Amino acid sequence: MDTLASTTATDDALASRTAFHTCPLCEANCGLEIRIGPDGVQVRGDEQDVLSRGFVCPKGVSIHASDTNADRLRWPLVRDRATGLHREVSWQEAFEHIERGMAPVLAAGDPDAVGFYYGTGSGHSAGGLYYSVMSSALPTKNRYGSSTVDQAPKQVACALMFGHSMTVPIPDIDHCSHLLILGANPAVSNGSLFTAPGVLQRMKA
Predict the structure, then answer these.
(1) pLDDT confidence of residue 11
(2) Cβ proximity of 155 and 149 under 8 Å
(3) Is there a smaller number of Cβ atoms within 10 Å at the N or the C end of the chain?
(4) What distance in Å separates the CA atoms of residue 35 and residue 152, rounded to the nearest whole number?
């Protein structure tokens, strides 16, 4: 009986647990407290996190939905030209499909006929490594991403002022007495590139 009770207690402990994680969805790096139990997953800001101090945005709160969403992509999709519909295929078939489409383009001799576009998430996960390998294999000048859409001027200015496009200064908004913002709205961007979770509360303070 004691053994059974002990086993049940262990199972309950495994079924209900709390995990701590750093949100990977943007550069704010908010701390997350993730409670996992029989009723599902609950996510909230980690009040003990020294950077975010319990702040979390709507994306962080719903991060677990990326795993459970019925529309999540679990296999490569290939569009059927006849019907226009996408169908799931194996990775082998997906790469064969890419090769059939890319080979004639590359054989024509113009590498710039190929363009790459990458999203924000690739900069915050190991997925970005695959982009680097693939883009290095093709000497195209056409490489685009979320940064080229919304922050290229900032990076050009940083390159001219500080010597490198990624040398982005981070203001110490917790201790400054005057903050001048040009061409940005931290209420919308949540202080993107500030690395300051809860930026509006910090600015008001």
Answers:
(1) 53
(2) no
(3) N
(4) 39
